[in-house]
What we know:
mainly alpha; 2% strand; 414 residues
Amino acid sequence: MIRLFLLCLAISIFGLWLTLFLGFPGDPGYILVAFGSYTFETSLFALLISSVLIYLVFRMLKLIVGWLDLPRLKLLRAKELYEKNREYKAHNATTEAYIQLFLGNWAACYKSLAKGLATETSVVSYLAASYAAFKGAASEKWSRHLDDAEKKFPAQKPTIELMRAQFLFETGQFNEAKAILDTLDKKSPHDSRLMILLKHYHLKTKEWSALEILLPRLEKNNLIDQKELEDLHVRCLTEKIVELSDEILSGDDWISKKALLSLWKKAPKRLTKNEELVRFYVNALIKAGDSSEALKVMEQLISEEWSDQLVLFYGEQDFGKNSHQLVTAEKWLKIKADSSILFLTLARISLRNELTEKAMKYYESSIASSPSAEAYLELSMLLGRVGDEDASFLNLKHYYKFIAADTMNLPLVS
């Protein structure tokens, strides 16, 4: 009120000064406004004073209306404070819920989140509530919260559906999960979390061809380390070999055998040099009745890149061509002249060729190069077979000392 009085006083003083300065008492001025048959005329001084009075009346009316509306303003203020207090409590409850979520207290987390979902404006809270309900084994609740989140936040549908697919997958509802994953993969093929979930899905459901197609995408997006990538490539190829081997054994020989050979030829070079995979493939060929191809694969790999493990495997397997194997393995002595592994392999192949003396010689050469439990035991058995009991017992004694030292880390006793 005081401010209004001071404002009116200032305007009056200004108007008085302006009147005297412009000489309104001597010449008040004249204004004529004509519009059609209507005219309006007044002095400039009167117009100025009227404008000031109108302004003052308007200010007074506004102030009076403000006084009359004060109770409503207080009510609005009280409602605003109530809403703020409610939001504050909801915020505190949400914060506490996230803490409980981190701690793994699913029931406490869900209870705190459920209080604020009615006024919640964040999709994160709906997802957190669904996650807590899922972990608490409340399937009807987690599904309902995801439905509500999808209705309230349609822009976040891909994220919501991805969580739904994960929950369905973890509860064994693979068909439902797959339908969602396929839809998401078409719309968001570069989604990292989606690709990881697809990897788990293909592994669980043993969809090896689909997993093999997915692996380059995982590698390109740096979502898999090289060790796991290599292991999964080996796994995919192994499972395909198993599938074709089963078909061969079930009677579809020619077509499946041709497919098996084609599969190996088309496989990446790094995989066809994987020792574990090579042994698996060779065994599959032998079971399929194609020992010749198995022998060819082994000899080609060993000639390209020497491997003690594959050489041992070469000597352990009976490919039905023992004479050929002995000649081939003896040629390798030019490459590995002092290899205990090669000597052991030659001894075993010699035995299959019924060359007892030669086998005995190769066993002794293997032990001389680098003693092994296998060489001691097999030589002992061979000596026992030919009737040399003393030498057989001596090698058996060396065998027991060797395995005792190897398994128990005890010093060898002379």
